[in-house]
Amino acid sequence: MADLIGVSTQYLSTLERGVVGTSIPTMIRICDVLQVSCDYIMMGREDKNDISDVLKRLEYLAPEQLGIVEHGINVLLEAMGAALR
Known about the structure:
about 0% strand, about 80 residues, single chain, mainly alpha
């Protein structure tokens, strides 16, 4: 982990124990490596919805079924006034 964020193992250890703080650039590198938001690290909350369970279920659909689901999602998002991607 220390190598991935560009700090010494000693510094990472003192950071983990709360002995020292860190700079914003180092915090951003930590979040990038862990693939989490700064909110999650600092406040214990994620700023995005966790849809990993939904994605796992969709992986097993046939292409035709996935098309139906995608159409349904588009209709729901349009009805809610959400932007379609």
